[in-house]
User: Fold these one by one.
Assistant:
Number 1:
Amino acid sequence: MNQRRRRIYEGKAKILYEGPEPGTVVVHFKDDATAYNAEKKAVIEGKGVLNNRISEFIFERLNDLGLPTHFVKRLNMREQLVREVEIIPLEVIVRNIAAGSMAKRLGIEEGTALPRSIIEFCYKNDELGDPLIAEEHITAFGWASPQEIDDIMAMTIRINDFMSGMFAAIGIKLVDFKIEFGRQYEGDLVRTVLADEISPDSCRLWDMKTNEKMDKDRFRRDLGGLVEAYQEVARRLGILNENDHGKPAKPTLVKS
């Protein structure tokens, strides 16, 4: 990629660059790890490479299912090409098993299976700590229209159904995950599409047999072995060679 390309935005885990064609953006996955609204920070070599590849794998399959996403293709080990969207300022959280902030907030023992999957919304604002909100807040403040909320809910349910089955097939529980959506403009038409990323950074993934954590909680809770856990997720998905046991900082990826 041209090193003189224009930087559009830099977040905690990714950098966005102007794409090679109008209406496209290049997403660069960094090795930075953050937790607790960036109060805890570290650089973990190899994390960005794995997140890029895992997110590509999942987005490609969601595209195959007919779910609209911003993903176009992976460009290299750390970057992917996506369509430009206007991000809707919501974090959509799907919870299948009580964990993290929900377990603490409601006094539920972590690991308790929920009666049904629960979808929560947070207002995407780092300065406010991404507060939990209701649909009434979303429509009252114009963050999304009722139709957009309906579209988001319908897509989120489909994404959860697909990903729960996909991970269960490889011995992993999909405890919860966070996704974001954006508005894609096509002439006079606007459609709601899945954006951002889906990776162990944005999902809670537990081994079905041992309940071992295979996600960013390994960093949040000082458990260590974050890259090794991400590698194991990639290996089970078929992204890494089954016989690859090299250094975790430099994983060997299977070319798609």
Note: The two ends are 20 Å apart (CA to CA).
Number 2:
Amino acid sequence: MNIAYLILKFSLSAALLVTVSEIAKRSSLWAALLASLPLTSLLAFFWLYVDTKDTNKVASLSMDIFWLVIPSLALFPSLALLLKNGIAFGWSLGGSIILTFIAYVLTLWFLSLTKLN
């Protein structure tokens, strides 16, 4: 793979993260709006298609992302709940990551029992 192409991919993807963190300093709502958009997924779809020209791979990635967005949602309310109850940031973040990990494990287990993915 061309090094310039890899640098372009990293640069565009990193720019998105930096933009969200900079906007969050001024407005959490606007940063949340930008972060909630499926821009990472869109970039992944684009890069995968450009690299492979395989629409079946893009479709498969799209459905896998759909199913794995569901357990990722556990992070947000658990972090907010822990912080609002006076738990220190590090413990709150760690606890919400553990809860999210458990949600992922349960979702992956469920998907392995079904033909949804």
Note: The chain has two domains: 1-37, 41-117.
Number 3:
Amino acid sequence: MKSFLCTVSFILASVAHAQQHPLFKEADLALGEKLITDNKCEECHKRRAGGDGSGIYNPKGRINTAGALRGMVEYCNTELNLGFFPEDTTAVAAALNKRHYKFK
């Protein structure tokens, strides 16, 4: 039973990882989620977009490619002086892609 569960977990992780856009293939999703939380991104988005902040995520708007998404995260990094390294920016963009955008 344990080996079956390990196999199922591996397959599900592979499928979830395979569904990410190639730009985010090597991204650390856990790091991205942590950076989003640690830098209070959602609080900033609530101030800018109102409500629960989710209105800022609009895949049919300005952010219509994975590259544009990564670019917007880099914009926030630069404007807010967050100090992200390139792999941090990619990790955050990958986490946002998984949550909201679903670029493949």
Note: Residues 9 and 70 are 28 Å apart (CA to CA).
